[in-house]
Amino acid sequence: MRPGNPEALSAAYDPRRIEPERYAFWERLGVFQPRADLAAQPKGTGSRAPFVIAIPPPNVTGSLTMGHVLGESVRDCIIRWQRMEGRETLYIPGMDHAGIATQNVVEKKLKSEKRSRHQLGREGFLKAVWEWKEQYGGLIFQQERRLGITPDWARERFTLDEAYSRAVLHVFKSLHDEGLIYRGRYIVNWCPRDGTALSDEEVDMVETDGHLWYIRYPLKEGNGSVTVATTRPETMLGDTGIAVSAKDPRYAKLIGSTAVLPLVRREIPIVGDESVDPKFGTGAVKVTPAHDPNDFLVGKRHNLPEIVVMDEGGVMNDAAGDFRGLDRFAARERIVAALQDAGYLEKVEPHHHAVGHCSRCNTVIEPYLSWQWFVKMAPLAVPAIEAAKKGKVKMFPARWKKVYLNWLENIRDWCISRQLWWGHRIPVWYRGDETVVSLESPPGEGWRQDEDVLDTWFSSWLWPFATLGWPEKTPDLERYYPNSLMVTGSDIIFFWVARMIMAGYHFLGEAPFAHVYFTSIVRDAQGRKMSKSLGNSPDPLAMMEKYGADSVRFCMVQTPTGQDLLFDEKRLENGKFFANKLWNATKLVTMRLGAPGAAGSEDLSGVKESQLRLTLADRWILSRFANAAKDVSRNLKTYRFAEAAQAIYHFAWNEYCDWYLEMAKPRWALAGAPGEAGPDGELTTEQRDDLRTARWVSWRVLDGILRLLHPFMPFVTEELWQAIPHDGETLALAAWPKAKNSWFDAEAEREVAFLQGVVVAVRNLRVESKIAPGKPVPVVVRGAKAQLDLLGRLSAQVKPLARIETLKLSHDGGRPPVAASAVVQGAEIFLPLEGLVDLDEERARLAREAQKLLADLEGVKKKLRNQDFLRKAKPEIVQKENERLGQLEETLDKLKRAQQSLSAVRE
Questions:
Q1: In the sheet where 345-358 sits, what is the strand order?
Q2: Where does residue 32 fall: left (phi above 0), alpha (psi -120 to 50 degrees), or beta otherwise?
Q3: What's the distance, CA 904 to chain centroid?
Q4: Rounded Cα–Cα distance for residues 257 and 269 (Å)
Q5: How far is CA 304 from the centre of its chain?
Q6: On the CB side of 744, how many CA atoms lie within 13 Å of its CA?
């Protein structure tokens, strides 16, 4: 056993000094790599199998956000816990090339230099992006090191690495050869700003207050007309039909006739189609096959022409006639004005509807007809659906399973081509009428490669196995696939999680992980999602600089399962207070243990538990520790991180620091002042055994606390562990504490609970009676014989905890004439007030407080009787008022009892 280094705690707790030093210490020891002794053994199964988890690859352009901090805090907590459980662990880091985001960043840089990607050309631009990546990319990993995460950095992957890129292109060819990838001219979500197609999952639907424009389309024959309603009048220039329901008596007779498109004078047919809702608008809809996904399908069913009226930048093209060259929204205004001038605009109504926006740049997307590459998803979804239904992949919280299945069971084909330069270029080659899918350029002259690149998610969905060397059969793939767990945000359940599961089954025949844990959304105190655009997200690095990484981690993991995290900086302050509390407690314990080799110190390494003389307090704290260890482990196994963190927090602060260490002080006093030889040599054998026991229990439980807390607060726990006697080089590889059966002691817990109740009752009575905290008071206890015997045996420990001067124990004695009182497990606790307070002044004070309380109480009751308040106020506000009502009533009840006690005495 190593003796520890208590001198390291001579300075105050300073995370800015400790944290960088400890991270470098772990790296020097090789803590982050899979343990060589375990990796050399045959691959285990079940709880002995390697525990593997991968970082969801952040964008190469990314910087640390509070959302990242939450995810990484949870992931690192799990991997540290499993490492201490003795399992072979692998935590895989990596970065995503982030096609659109990275290309935008570099294009902005070029623009600031008065250059463009088109001036550089494709090869020159890609060279510029790689140079930018080498200079600025990966900043987030430096920031995550500051947070203390422990991945095997030697295995860092990048989705555009040569080996990873081969895997991506291999998948494209493989799926194409199977007939699951095809090229087609379809309506896609188009971002005019980024100039590329988007998948459905890359479109945010934003509730918007817009309009319905009602436009009259004259009939070719006669003087009649058909009125249609549209939210996008600029697309009418591409109309090639009007659709009505054959069951609608208003229009059935018009099916087969011809209308004339206003402003353009194009003749268009009126068709009957079952997709038309007679109740929407006028029951007649314009059909624009090139600019609406539903209209595209209607057009196919009725062989209608497809006319594209704007270019890829959202500017009206030659097909728009007089409106060519106008931005789509400017064209909307001009077209509406022209319709009104010509008498075609019947009316305009407000209309609330969802409008698609690019998730990257927030530009309104344009449904657009273009040639793109797609993956047939329905066949791939079958095993992924079965995996969730049969429990082969379990999701936490479980409610996400329903969301996952609903998406997969209604899945649409995935548009995987993007009109970018940065990314995996599609491995398709053209020469004349020939098309070849090949990872390399086909032999011969004249071949031209497809200009588009693959969707970034097309590389990310291979992450669990491509990071391990697939498609090659590498030792890493054999040993570490499938992964054990995926921790990620619920916002990418479709983008990424579902697709990874599909890819895992399709290419390797099994799920890529057994469990998925979805982290919460981080919101501000007003309930808004934290984002850079709102400016409501603090800088995580500034928070770590101010409070320490441990405090930030500890705060972030305390999110109740399935609920969003309402971030409050005060919680970080509490985390720092907790670290300080542990620091001071460890400092106290090491002082009482004595410096190694100093007079009065003791080597605890050879002490056996069977040799100890355990007191009630010792038995109690060991039992409470066993329960805490059991609770923390149980909650970690079910991904209840908030409950696990609270269990160790409550035990360490409230039970070990506030109670046990205080109860141990009289025994420690036997050794004299810290650092002195003291009267050790003069102690009796019983006293010496008692001192040894207090030291051993204090040290052993503190060691267990630091182990349990290490996954949550790794830096401060490592520093403190190194200061106390310990086994091994680092806490990061120390054994996870188990609940020792012999330590569970229900009797000790019941008895100490009674003693705690007495102490707390006396403390509360002191506060309620306005007695100075340091003033000793007399206390009378009337209770059962067993309770009084217990108090009598431990009075030396109980009295200092409540500043009790005299403790009178009575089985059936009378009540003191003027006393504040409380009841604890049937025992009556009396605090005599005569001589401690001015009774007349106390009566007057209580009367004033009662008057104020009654006024406050009536105000709250009046508010809660107000139906207007109850109807308009948020539920949480009403709840707070109800809680305040209960608190006021409870306080008033206590005050009345105090008044009754004083009314018995008149001076």
A1: 225-230, 203-218, 345-358
A2: alpha
A3: 58
A4: 6
A5: 49
A6: 8
**Residues 597-636: b if buried by 16+ CB within 10 A, e if exposed:** eeebbbebeebeeeebebbbbbbbbbbbbbbbbebbbebb
Residue 418 β-bridge partners = 453
* Residue 666 C-beta-side C-alpha neighbours within 13 Å: 12
Percentages helix, strand, coil for the chain (3-state, rounded to 5) are 50, 20, 35
Q: Which residues contact 863 (CB under 8 A, 6 or more apart)?
A: 869, 881
Task: Report the chain (907 residues): mean pLDDT per 10 consecutive residues.
Answer: 78 92 96 88 84 93 85 97 96 93 90 93 95 86 93 96 97 98 92 87 89 95 92 96 94 94 95 91 94 93 96 95 96 96 95 90 92 96 97 96 95 92 97 95 95 96 98 96 95 93 98 96 84 77 95 92 85 94 95 68 79 93 98 96 96 97 87 51 83 94 98 98 94 94 95 93 88 90 91 89 92 78 84 81 78 91 91 87 88 75 61
For residues 67 and 73, give the distance between their C-alpha atoms in angstroms, rounded to a whole number. Answer: 10
Return the number of other C-beta atoms located less than 10 Å from residue 110's C-beta: 18
Give the pairing of strands 453-454 and 417-418: antiparallel
Q: 455 with 375: CB under 8 angstroms?
A: no
DSSP string, 430-492: EETTEEEE-SSPPSSS--EE-S-EE-HHHHHTTHHHHTTTTTS--HHHHHH-S-SEEEEEGGG
449 and 429 in contact (C-beta within 8 Å)?
Answer: yes
- Is 387 in contact with 501 (CB distance < 8 Å)? yes
Say whether 373 sits in a helix, a strand or coil.
strand
Rounded CA gap, 421 and 409, in Å?
Answer: 33
Q: Is 266 exposed, middle or buried (0-12, 13-18, 19+ CB in 10 A)?
A: middle
CA–CA separation, 159 and 171 (whole Å): 14
CB 129 within 8 A of CB 11: no
E strand residue ranges, 256-326: 258-260, 267-272, 284-287
CA separation for the pair 506, 462 (Å, rounded): 11
Distance CA 235, CA 254 (A): 23
The residues that bridge with 809 in the sheet, in sequence order, are: 781
What is the C-alpha separation between 823 and 424, in angstroms, rounded? Answer: 74
Which regions of 2-78 does DSSP assign to beta strands (E)? 51-54
Decide the pairing of beta strands 414-415 and 366-375. antiparallel
- The secondary structure element, H or E, covering residue 414 is strand 414-415
pLDDT at 568: 85
Give the C-alpha separation, 531 to 523, whole Å: 9
Q: Please report the pLDDT score of residue 600 as a whole number.
A: 59
**C-alpha angle with apex 191: 185 to 196, nearest 5 degrees?**
55
**pTM, two decimal places:** 0.84
Alpha carbon distance 83, 118 (integer Å) = 50
Q: At what angle do helices 569-593 and 540-547 cross, to 10 degrees?
A: 30
Task: Measure the CA angle with vertex 185, ends 182 and 190; round to 5°.
Answer: 105
φ/ψ of residue 280, rounded to 5: -90, 130
Sequence-separated (6 or more) residues with CB below 8 Å from residue 247? 278
Alpha carbons 256 and 258: distance in angstroms, whole number: 7
Could you please report the per-residue DSSP string of 713-746? SHHHHHHHHHHS-BSSS-GGGSPPP---GGG--H
Residue 847 confidence (pLDDT)? 85
Q: Which helix (H) or strand (E) holds 408?
A: helix 400-409
Question: Which residues are registered as beta bridge partners of 548?
Answer: none
Collapsing DSSP to helix, strand or coil, 502 comes out as helix
